[in-house]
Amino acid sequence: MTTPIVDFVRHYRDSGARRLHMPGHKGKTRLGPEVLDITEIDGADVLYAPRGIIRESEENAARLFGSRRTVYSCEGSSLCIRAMLFLTAQAAREQGRVPVIAAGRNAHKVFILAAALLNLEVRWLWGHRSVLSCPVTAAEVEACLLSGDVTAVYLTSPDYLGNTVDIAAIAAVCHRHGALLLVDNAHGAYLKFLAPSRHPLDHGADLCCDSAHKTLPVLTGGAYLHLSQNAPAWLADRMDAAMELFASTSPSWLILQSLDMVNALLAGDYPACIRQTASRLDALKTRLSWDTLGDEPLKLCIRPKGRGYTGTELAALLKRQHIFCEFADPDFLVLMVTPETAADDLDAVERTLSEIPPRSPIETAPPVLGSPEPALTAHEALFAPCEWLPVGQCLGRVLAAPTVSCPPAVPIVVSGERMDEKALALLHYYGIERCLAVKEQTGD
Questions:
Q1: Where are the alpha helices (DSSP H) in 95-206?
Q2: Are 256 and 110 in contact (CB under 8 A)?
Q3: Please, what is the Cα angle at 213 between 242 and 227, to 5 degrees?
Q4: Distance of CA 433 to the CA centre of its chain
Q5: Model pTM?
């Protein structure tokens, strides 16, 4: 498979060009990659108006993923999520409908903020309640769609603990009710290359974002926005404009080259390497005496309290052996694996975990997740006068903007919701010390 972006940049590097254009480093090496870092010069194409090498590369990616159209992001899935919501709003209004999105509560903070900025109504799907997981079912989606006014469904799968939902069943429900299905597949770009494919596009998703950098050998920030073959065709012509609405006008050409190069890898033997790695990790999971969870093939998610450790304690023990985890909190530890993970890295993980002696189980569980009462729309709350308050002073106050970074997890409170005792207990449990609250109106 061709690599037009990589080829162009390398030719430019070797051409002896005098760089009287951005970037300011002019190709002079201080860190190392500057010589390959360019801007949108003549011949290099424009990311969100592609006619040349970028368009060719994106078409290569579309063939690999089986999409109607694939667009590159140099700003991760965060940019793609914003664009998906904008496209969804456009699709609803094309039909003369008000956009209403039913969303799994384990939505990334970017979804919450983008919905607020676009002033979209969100109906939350809670699944079985947990702070880090939200296994929404087709039955729950159908019950929500029976209202008749929901125009799209938004799911996060896989979640941060490696759980996936039944995309095929939910897609069938969505399409029966005339709703688009959007999937945040940030953690699952590699799912396309399993046998059989577990990628959302192959199970009925209409729009889908993948963070290529999370599970493929792509530089941080590289991501895809995919449009399904079965989605409304006219959306393909709106994707660039939707991305450009939120994107930087200075994309990283280092990231673009890595997205371009991975096409050649995925067209070769890399999918076989993905499958071999998944098999290796699955075998390791069966040998471990730790409690694991999740069905995602390239994540090792551990629930360590049964052996007497918190996730943060376990992460510290692994770090002493130079093993750095993806995520840890009081209840869970997450390790992410790809074909780039060396065999001796996995051996070190297994050896270290096997040498940690069991202790008395920890019985402490996180406080129960509640259903905070909405007091304002997210849009109203985000733009309202606000103030930082210690969590202890937030009882009954309305959250203005999310105050913690949010992986694909279940936010304790979202913008516009009133913070109750259950919310405060969870905020304390996770070490959140203050929140941005809407200012209360005072009388004259």
A1: 109-117, 138-145, 167-176
A2: no
A3: 35
A4: 26
A5: 0.94
Consecutive 10-residue averages of pLDDT for the chain (444 residues):
96 94 94 94 93 97 98 98 97 95 93 94 83 86 94 95 95 97 97 98 98 98 98 96 96 98 98 98 97 96 97 98 95 97 97 97 89 93 95 95 64 92 90 91 64
Pairing mode of beta strands 434-438, 386-390 = antiparallel
β-strand pairing of 386-390 with 333-336: unpaired
> Are residue 85 and residue 234 in the same domain, yes or no?
yes
Looking up tokens 């109750």, which residue turns up?
420
In 3D space, the residue among 205, 199, 206, 209 whose CA is nearest the CA of residue 233 turns out to be 206
DSSP 34-45: GGG---S-TTS-
- Both 285 and 383 in one domain: the answer is no
For β-strands 152-156 and 180-184, DSSP reports them as parallel
Going by C-beta distance under 8 Å and a sequence separation of 6 or more, which residues neighbour residue 27?
13, 19, 34, 35, 37
State whether residue 94 is helix, strand or coil: helix
CA 102 to CA 153: how far, in whole Å?
5
CATH of the domain at 324: 3.90.1150.150
Q: Specify whether 99 is located in the same domain as 222.
A: yes
Q: What are phi and psi of 246, to 5 degrees?
A: -115, -10
Classify 336 as helix, strand or coil: strand
Alpha carbon 180 to chain centroid distance?
19
